[in-house]
Amino acid sequence: MSDRLFIFDTTLRDGEQVPGCQLNTVEKIQVAKALETLGVDVIEAGFPVSSPGDFKSVVEISKAVTWPTICALTRAVEKDIDAAAEALKYAKRKRIHTGIGTSDYHIKYKFNSTREEIIERAIACVKYAKKYVEDVQFYAEDAGRTDNEYLARVVEAVVKAGATVINIPDTTGYCLPEDFGKKILYLKENVKGIDNVVIATHCHNDLGMATANTVSGILNGARQAEVTINGIGERAGNTSLEEVVMTFKSHNKGIETNINTQKIYSTSRMVSSMMNMPVQPNKAIVGRNAFAHSSGIHQDGVLKNRENYEIIDPKDVGIDENSIVLTARSGRAALKHRLNVLGVELSQEDLDKAYAEFLALADRKKDINDDDILMLVGKSRGEKARISIDYLQVTSGIDVRSVASIGLSIAGEKFESAASGNGPVDAAINAIKNIIHRNMTVEEFLIQAITKGSDDTGKVHMTVSYNNESYYGFGANTDIVAASAEAFVDAINKFVR
Ligand code: KIV
Ligand code: ZN
Asked: Which pLDDT value is given to residue 452?
């Protein structure tokens, strides 16, 4: 008999906290629906007290999603719990996730408190949440650095107070797999009432061990894994859903999940594209190279028998090597079909916009693949910006100084300028700065090709600092200088109102 492992997805809460990954409510609903189709058990939809936007997203996701439990995060604070309960009003299945830091670092430096007081606060928040919902999950923040004896006392107290799920986060990504597993086992063996609740793992990846720690926790008795798509999350990220799910699918450890693994790849692409968060090419399971065999020996081996070098059939995670590539001759219906396969449903108006963008791209690029399509959807979904680029012309080359001339529309008014620079991107940015006179600096600048080929679309991620704040900008174009200018203007649109 197999044991069921519950998959708790926190892409829309812990994942969305990453600078530049913020989604609007409509986008969050799309991701939530994709997670439902993927088969996750719980969707952590947000932290309602943190902002009106987060509150609204939890409300709307609760209305839009049927099967998964919708979970809302709180601190151990009554007004947080009130907000979470209100935001979850429409959820068919609901859970409040409340908790407090339990490590000595948190007790002393974050709360200026004592161990006994923290236990009292933990009990109080669980009891308060219980007034609203039956399903209350408690997190012991920084449990990874909390000593096991004290952690067991906290856990026993909150189980007694009515918690249904106990979350043991390795908040700082500090633990070693063996120690994290022992921590879960210690709780299993030393906490009264622990068999009546589910223990959850929530591991961060600061030392690159989030998945190893999660797997170790599960092998020692945890039955809920807290994960994100592509492992996105604060700093080095969270445990990635696809790694945990495919680990237990590949190893017969008597653990099963409800995940439809064939939906993993499309969900990964969708989240990466919507959150403007590239997936590293060598990322396990979903990276572009995860199933690419380049050495002659490996290619020969795979051709003789796939299992010589592949432990997972790419089809099991939804990678269809024969997937249709769209071209300039593809119709609107083909685009709509491909979008549906990728889990994206558009209104007629947005589909028309995406199709117009698609035709424009197909004029410049022969084959349009899934990443291009998702990038186009992102563009047509964007709200009308205050500043937009009318045209950009650049001359550059070897042993010449680059020169750019640009036309911008700012709230409907037209502006033009020209400037030189040490390269075409520098020239284009200087020309934009001649029109928008703000003291702004490009802090980070990343250019990435989506797939391969010299006609490929380039994606640009940029961080611009202004007034001691950082603003994220994104651009995508077959011309990387144009994509860079788009990313710069996208960032500026976030602070020029
Ligand atoms: O990493 C962490 O400790 C968290 C908690 C709020 C669950 O995200
Ligand atoms: Zn976290």
From this structure: 62
pLDDT at 80: 98
The stretches in the chain having pLDDT less than 50 are none
**CA 36 to ligand 1 centroid distance, Å:** 22
Q: Minimal CA–CA distance to 367: which of 448, 456, 449, 281?
A: 456
Residue 491 near residue 464, CB atoms below 8 Å:
yes
- Helix, strand, or coil here: 303? helix
205 lines ligand 1 (CB under 6 A): no
8, 13, 14, best to mutate for ligand 1 pocket (most atoms within 8 Å of CB): 14
Which tokens in the block code for residue 350? 């947005």
Taking the centre of ligand 1 as the mean of its atom positions, its distance from the CA of residue 169, in whole angstroms, is 6
Q: Which CATH superfamily is domain 392-495 in?
A: Alpha-isopropylmalate synthase LeuA, regulatory domain (3.30.160.270)
In terms of CATH architecture, what is 3-274? Alpha-Beta Barrel (3.20)
DSSP 3-62: EEPEEEE-TTTTGGGSTT----HHHHHHHHHHHHHHT-SEEEEE-GGG-HHHHHHHHHHH
Helix, strand, or coil here: 238?
strand
- Compute the distance from residue 220 Cα to the ligand 2 centre, in Å: 21
- The pTM of the full predicted model, rounded to 2 decimals, is 0.80
Name which residue sits closest to atom 1 of ligand 1, judged by CA: 171
